[in-house]
C-alpha cells in the first residue's frame, strides 16, 4: 500500500493539469483493481476494463477523462471514446456518501458502508432506464465500482471503474476487498483533480448554431459533444437568456438525430391546465375547444429531439405524465380511449432554477429530478463570458444588417464594444440582443442617406443602454456594479489614469438625487444623517459632498455637475 500511495503522490505533485493528474490516478487505481482480481477466485475469468474521472461540482459536469487498461494517456471528453455517465451511479454515491458496487446484469447497488443494504430491482433495476443498463453491457461492463470524489467543499464528482466478469453475476466481486485502498487513492487525488486547470483546448469551429465560443464555453464543449452523441437526457441549467435553447439545438445537430425534428416547448408560455395537452396532444372532444385532433410536441418531435425549457414551471400533474413518458417511452393523448403511443424522442431539459431545492420544497418530484438529471451541464451567464460580449455583438449587428441590406456592411466602433463589455448583463444574450438592436436602429437613423460602412458608435450604445432602465430601476448591488464597471471603463478608454479619489463623488451624487426627490432636510434624514440636521452641520457637509461631485464631472470633461445649482445655493448661504 505504501508503494501505491507514494507513487501516486509523486505523480500528482508533478502534474500541471487535470488530464495528467487523472491519468496518474486512474493508472494506479486500475493496477490495484487488477491485482485484486488476480488474487481472487475470479483470476483468469475477469478483466478490468477502464476507469473514468467524472468531475461534476455543483451538480453539473465540468470535465471527463477516461483511461483504458494498458493506455498511457487519458482520452478527453469529445475525442471519440464511448464515454458513459450513469445517473444511477451518481445518485447512489450521493445518497450513501460512500463507494458503491453495481452488478449490472441483475441491477443491484451495494454500498460499501458496513451493514448497508443491497438496493435495486432485478431486471431493470436500480437503473434509471433500460438504456442505461444496456449501454453498460454494450461496453462489456458487468461490474462497476463508483467512488465519491470528496473535498472539504463537498462531493465534487466520482471515479468509476469497470470490469467484465460474467462468472461473478449475482456474486460479490472484488470491489469491496480493494475498496479501502481505492477510496484512499481517490481521496488523495481529489484536491489535484478539482483544482488543476484543464489543458488548453483548441479553438472550436463555430457554426450557425453556436456562432460565438469564448474561453468558458470552449472548455464546456468537449463534454457537450460527448453528451450529444448519447440518447440520455441532458439537463442544461443557467440563467434566463443565457442561450440554453441555442445550446440544445447545437447538441441536436451533433447527435445521431440530426436532420430529424427539433421541437421546443417553453413552459413559461403555457398555462398549467394546458401543459398536458401541449405535451401529449389531444383527440377531438377531449375538452372544451378541442374541435379537432391535434398532435402534441412529443409527437411532433418523433425521431428527433424535444427541448423542454423552464421545467420547474411544470405542474405536479404534468410532472407525473412526463415521468411516465421518460420511464416507459410511451404516452396517451388526452381523450385517447385505450392504448398508448410510443415515443422515439431524445429529451433536453432546460431550467434556471435549482431543481434540487425545488425537490426539497415539494414543488418538483424527486423521481422526476433523477430522471432528468442524467447528463447535467451548467450554462455560464454572459457576465462570466465577458470575452464573448464583443463577439456576440458583432455577430448580432452583422446578422441584422445582412437581413436589411444584404450588400452593406456594419460594425461597432472599438469604444462601443468596450462600453458593452464593461456593462452588466442580467438579461444575458437576450438583453444584449435588445441593446444591439436598439443601438443599430439609432445608428441607421443617423446614417440615413449616407454611404460607406454603418458604424455603431459609443453614443449609440450608451443611448440604447439608457433606454434599458426600467421605471423601478435595477437592484442596488447590480447598479453599484454597473457604476463601478463604468468607472473602470472610462479609465480604460482615456488611456491614462482616472484617480480613484474621484469615486468619492458618488456620495454627493446620492445625496444630490435624494435632495431633488424629497428636499434637503428630509434627504439627510433618509440617508441616516439626521444628527447633522439637528446640529445644523448639514450645510457644511452638503457643500463638501457636492464639491466632490463637481470635481468628478470636471475630471470626466463635463462642463458642470447636475447639482451645480445646489452648490451655488450653499455658497450663497
TrEMBL record:
<dbReference type="InterPro" id="IPR058031">
    <property type="entry name" value="AAA_lid_NorR"/>
</dbReference>
<dbReference type="GO" id="GO:0003677">
    <property type="term" value="F:DNA binding"/>
</dbReference>
<dbReference type="GO" id="GO:0005524">
    <property type="term" value="F:ATP binding"/>
</dbReference>
<dbReference type="InterPro" id="IPR003593">
    <property type="entry name" value="AAA+_ATPase"/>
</dbReference>
<dbReference type="InterPro" id="IPR002078">
    <property type="entry name" value="Sigma_54_int"/>
</dbReference>
<keyword id="KW-0067">ATP-binding</keyword>
<feature type="domain" description="Sigma-54 factor interaction">
    <location>
        <begin position="210"/>
        <end position="441"/>
    </location>
</feature>
<keyword id="KW-0547">Nucleotide-binding</keyword>
<protein>
    <submittedName>
        <fullName>Sigma-54-dependent Fis family transcriptional regulator</fullName>
    </submittedName>
</protein>
<dbReference type="Pfam" id="PF00158">
    <property type="entry name" value="Sigma54_activat"/>
</dbReference>
<keyword id="KW-0238">DNA-binding</keyword>
<dbReference type="Pfam" id="PF25601">
    <property type="entry name" value="AAA_lid_14"/>
</dbReference>
<dbReference type="InterPro" id="IPR027417">
    <property type="entry name" value="P-loop_NTPase"/>
</dbReference>
<keyword id="KW-0805">Transcription regulation</keyword>
<dbReference type="GO" id="GO:0006355">
    <property type="term" value="P:regulation of DNA-templated transcription"/>
</dbReference>
<dbReference type="InterPro" id="IPR025944">
    <property type="entry name" value="Sigma_54_int_dom_CS"/>
</dbReference>
<keyword id="KW-0804">Transcription</keyword>
<dbReference type="InterPro" id="IPR025943">
    <property type="entry name" value="Sigma_54_int_dom_ATP-bd_2"/>
</dbReference>
Amino acid at each position: 500500500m505504501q508503494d501505491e500511495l507514494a507513487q501516486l503522490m509523486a505523480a500528482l505533485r508533478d502534474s500541471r493539469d487535470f488530464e495528467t493528474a487523472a491519468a496518474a490516478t486512474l493508472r494506479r487505481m486500475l493496477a490495484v483493481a487488477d491485482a485484486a482480481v488476480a488474487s481472487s477466485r475470479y483470476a483468469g475469468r475477469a478483466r478490468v476494463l477502464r476507469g473514468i474521472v467524472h468531475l461534476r461540482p455543483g451538480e453539473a459536469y465540468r470535465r471527463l477523462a477516461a483511461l483504458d487498461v494498458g493506455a498511457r494517456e487519458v482520452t478527453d471528453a469529445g475525442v471519440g471514446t464511448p464515454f458513459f455517465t450513469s445517473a444511477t451511479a451518481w445518485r447512489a454515491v450521493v445518497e450513501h456518501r460512500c463507494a458503491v458496487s453495481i452488478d449490472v446484469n441483475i441491477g443491484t447497488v451495494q454500498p460499501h458502508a458496513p451493514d448497508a443494504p443491497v438496493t435495486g430491482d432485478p431486471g431493470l433495476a436500480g437503473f434509471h432506464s433500460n438504456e442505461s443498463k444496456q449501454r453498460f453491457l454494450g461496453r462489456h461492463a458487468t461490474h462497476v465500482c463508483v467512488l465519491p470524489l470528496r473535498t472539504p467543499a463537498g462531493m465534487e464528482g466520482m471515479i468509476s471503474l469497470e470490469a467484465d466478469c460474467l462468472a461473478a453475476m449475482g456474486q460479490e466481486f472484488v470491489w469491496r476487498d480493494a475498496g479501502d485502498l481505492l477510496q484512499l487513492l481517490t481521496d488523495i487525488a481529489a484536491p489535484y483533480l478539482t483544482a488543476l486547470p484543464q489543458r488548453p483546448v483548441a479553438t472550436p469551429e463555430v457554426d450557425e448554431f453556436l456562432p460565438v465560443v469564448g474561453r468558458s464555453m470552449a472548455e464546456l464543449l468537449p463534454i457537450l459533444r460527448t453528451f450529444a452523441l448519447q440518447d440520455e437526457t441532458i439537463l442544461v441549467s443557467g440563467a434566463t437568456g443565457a442561450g440554453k435553447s441555442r445550446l440544445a439545438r447545437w447538441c441536436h445537430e451533433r447527435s445521431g438525430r440530426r436532420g430529424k425534428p427539433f421541437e421546443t416547448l417553453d413552459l413559461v408560455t403555457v398555462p398549467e391546465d394546458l401543459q398536458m395537452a401541449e405535451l401529449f396532444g389531444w383527440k377531438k372532444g377531449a375538452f372544451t375547444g378541442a374541435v379537432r385532433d391535434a398532435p402534441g410536441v412529443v409527437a411532433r418531435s418523433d425521431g428527433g429531439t424535444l427541448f423542454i425549457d423552464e421545467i420547474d414551471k411544470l405542474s405536479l400533474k404534468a410532472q407525473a405524465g412526463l415521468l411516465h413518458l421518460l420511464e416507459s417511452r410511451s404516452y396517451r393523448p388526452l381523450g385517447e380511449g385505450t392504448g398508448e403511443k410510443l415515443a422515439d424522442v431524445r429529451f433536453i431539459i432546460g431550467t434556471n432554477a435549482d431543481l434540487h431545492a425545488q425537490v426539497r420544497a415539494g414543488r418538483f418530484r424527486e423521481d422526476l429530478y433523477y430522471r432528468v438529471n442524467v447528463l447535467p451541464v451548467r450554462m455560464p451567464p454572459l457576465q462570466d463570458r465577458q470575452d464573448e460580449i464583443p463577439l456576440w455583438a458583432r455577430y448580432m449587428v452583422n446578422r441584422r444588417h445582412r437581413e436589411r441590406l444584404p450588400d452593406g456592411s456594419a460594425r461597432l466602433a472599438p469604444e462601443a464594444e468596450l462600453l458593452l463589455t464593461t456593462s452588466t448583463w442580467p438579461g444575458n444574450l437576450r438583453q444584449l440582443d435588445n441593446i444591439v438592436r436598439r443601438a443599430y436602429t439609432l445608428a441607421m437613423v443617423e446614417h440615413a442617406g449616407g454611404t460607406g460602412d454603418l458604424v455603431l458608435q459609443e453614443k449609440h450604445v450608451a443611448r440604447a443602454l439608457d433606454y434599458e432602465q426600467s421605471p423601478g430601476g435595477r437592484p442596488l448591488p447590480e447598479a453599484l456594479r454597473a457604476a463601478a464597471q463604468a468607472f473602470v471603463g472610462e479609465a480604460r478608454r482615456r488611456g491614462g489614469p482616472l484617480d480613484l479619489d474621484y469615486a468619492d463623488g458618488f456620495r454627493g451624487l446620492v445625496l444630490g438625487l435624494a435632495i431633488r426627490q424629497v428636499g434637503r432636510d428630509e434627504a439627510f434624514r433618509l440617508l441616516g444623517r439626521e444628527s447633522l440636521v439637528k446640529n445644523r452641520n448639514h450645510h457644511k457637509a452638503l457643500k463638501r459632498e457636492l464639491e466632490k461631485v463637481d470635481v468628478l464631472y470636471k475630471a470626466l470633461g463635463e462642463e458642470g455637475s447636475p447639482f451645480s445649482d445646489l452648490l451655488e445655493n450653499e455658497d450663497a448661504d
